[in-house]
Amino acid sequence: MKNINNILLVPGTLQYVKHYKEFDGVDIWICNKKEKINLKAKYFIGHSLGVNYILNANVNDESKFIFVNPLIKKRSAFNLFVRWIKFLVFEGFRGEKLVPVRYWLHVLRQVFLLLRVDVIGKLQEIPKENIFVIRGKQDNFFCDCEDVDILIKNNFKVIEVDAGHDWNSNIARAVKDVIKL
After folding, report:
1. What is d(CA 125, CA 69) in angstroms, rounded to the nearest whole number?
2. Whole-structure pTM value
């Protein structure tokens, strides 16, 4: 386990922490893992629905938060499912990043639980200077232009990088720049 400067990452839906390489975190999509989130981490990195997990935890508001392609706008489960299919077709997703099928029922329960989180409301409770939002410019599926407009309207800064929704080297570099690794 890498514990670089007290940094904790929560991965996007269906993904293992190990695929984020440079960062340690919590595998929330595996039901037999009873890892606890370190509520006192200096930096919390959330990717996609992992952002909702962090916002739903009772973490220290004085920490720094790096949210990558967060799901800002409330959308129905059906709408998100259609977006997920489009994401798979148009952006693609490497199968080795997925947690095994045996955990997918747990994943589905986690997804429905985390979709209830009022992301903008929770973001408003954290000092804005502690929040960094990184968005892939080509994310047309989950953190799209509407989501960016909502963030900007609510006075959040958005760092856009050359990426889609899925984590890539450009996103990792932007995260490291924020942390100054």
Report:
1. 19
2. 0.91
